[in-house]
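Batch manifest, entry 17 of 40.
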Amino acid sequence: MTATFDGIGRTEEWENLRRREPASASDINVGRRERWISAIAAAAVAAYGLRRRRGRGVLLPIAGALIGRAVSGRCAVNRMMGRNSALDDVPSSPVTSVGRGEGVRVDERIVINRARGEVYRFWRNLENLPRFMDHLEAVTVLDERRSHWTAKGPAGSRVEWEAEIHNEIPNDLIAWRSLPGSDIANAGSVHFAPTENGDTEVRVVLRYDPPAGKVGAAVARLFSEDPASQVADDLRRLKQVLEAGEAG
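Output type: structure tokens
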């Protein structure tokens, strides 16, 4: 797993849409593949260091650190970066709401002239979302992780689902997925990244799987023919709310 510029580790674009279980209850954060690479690198560095007098005092401690990384599966650098390649050793949960490669994908972003912490806190209060998401009627927070969403459908109908936050890094990332029994299977993540001048780039990655039948018709109306444009419009409204000081 590699680290992105904003410190969020990911193996590929859709990692935060998949529900993953912790590799263990410990603080292991180096996956099997990286541990093997560390062991091989340690042997190579140690062999090179033993053949040379100059630099031996630097190379041998590096080899020792790599051996420790390989044996223990723990890495202080990974911990500081919020990176955990041990998650790659764990298969995705079979209850993920939208499978990889399925459904409709949306990826939109916008820069907001507000500090990252302020933008994150506003979004994290999920009951704020209907203030800028035009299709949402209400979001009711059930507990720290779960919430109930109600969206507007055609002819006065409603589309409802429950969602849970399954991955969260304060001020950086919120990732969610719908729960079984929801009218619409969906999963997504929102990323908050600081810009050089102190603004915040908000990136929304969303995937949903439109069902068939009457609910499917409501979902089609809900997300419109161009879901990317709808999400972009929502983000523009978010920018307006925050920059106009209407968040309070």
